[in-house]
């Protein structure tokens, strides 16, 4: 299967999992939470052509990692994939909101300078700010809104701005996530696990568990499992090749 957003470096047994993920998944995008983490993870995870490691700075920890801002910008040129980045507007992260916005904006500009990047974007409780920044700064890049949790009108705005969506089993546990998925264009949806932060029966979701969204897609899209799989592969190829 495909996992377009996981934190493989943060599993307890990441190095043991690595070859399993490479053989079980067609493609896996490992997002990182800081550029320093990207420098080491991309070195350690090198050698698997179906595992890509994206350089990121997670919005929830920009306060702690503000010193890595320049490093992040300088790494964009070398990384085809960027994430996890974005803005988190939750109350606990209000203190850093202007810093988050400023870093995300600079990052989008840097991605444009590099000719455009595929960017896995976090937008929890900050969909409006994220879409405003994408509208103003994203032209050649492809933003993928990971675990989108905005409103239906915001979703339509995101679609008009050219955004893609990575959707995981955790997002589809609630009716809201399913209602959003119904409105997403079938050629811009890809699976994600967001493991190990997401769990199922208190076990972390594994990168190959992203596959569990297929059942919901079968019913929403009115397609057989095989056709859903081929649609996912088409989407992946359109995105990355
Ligand atoms: Zn994540």
Short précis:
This protein has 241 residues and is of the alpha/beta class. It contains 10 helices and 10 strands.
Q: Which features would summarize this protein structure in a list?
A:
single chain; TIM Barrel; five-stranded parallel β-sheet; 43% helix
Span of the ends, CA to CA? 17 Å
User: Tally the helices: what do you get?
Assistant: 10
Described by the principal axes of the CA atoms, the overall outline is: globular
The amount of helix comes to 40-55%
Give the SSE string: EHEHEHHEHEHEHEHEEEHH
* Named CATH architecture: Alpha-Beta Barrel
Strand proportion: 15-25%
CATH topology: TIM Barrel
Largest sheet, spatial ordering of strands: 4-5-6-7-8
Mean pLDDT: 97
Tally of structural domains: 1
Task: Write out the CATH superfamily name.
Answer: Metal-dependent hydrolases
Q: Please identify the top-level CATH class.
A: Alpha Beta
């Amino acid at each position: 299967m495909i996992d377009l957003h996981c934190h493989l470096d943060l599993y307890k047994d990441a190095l043991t999992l690595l070859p399993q993920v490479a053989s079980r998944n067609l493609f896996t995008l490992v997002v990182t939470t800081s550029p320093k983490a990207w420098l080491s993870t991309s070195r350690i995870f090198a050698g698997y052509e179906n595992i890509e490691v994206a350089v990121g700075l997670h919005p929830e920890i920009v306060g702690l990692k503000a010193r890595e801002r320049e490093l992040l910008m300088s790494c964009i040129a070398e990384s085809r994939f960027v994430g996890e980045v974005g803005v988190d507007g939750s109350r606990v992260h209000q203190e850093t909101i202007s810093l988050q916005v400023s870093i995300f904006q600079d990052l989008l500009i840097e991605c444009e300078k590099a000719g455009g990047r595929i960017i896995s974007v976090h937008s929890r409780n900050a969909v409006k700010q994220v879409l405003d920044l994408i509208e103003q700064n994203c032209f050649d890049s492809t933003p993928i809104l990971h675990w989108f949790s905005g409103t239906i009108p915001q979703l339509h705005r995101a679609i008009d701005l050219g955004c893609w969506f990575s959707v995981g089993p955790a997002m589809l546990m609630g009716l809201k996530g399913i209602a959003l998925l119904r409105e997403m264009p079938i050629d811009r949806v890809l699976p994600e696990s967001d493991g190990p932060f997401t769990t199922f029966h208190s076990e972390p979701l594994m990168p190959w568990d992203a596959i569990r969204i297929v059942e919901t897609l079968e019913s929403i899209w009115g397609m057989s499992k095989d056709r859903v799989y081929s649609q996912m592969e088409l989407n992946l190829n359109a995105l990355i090749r």
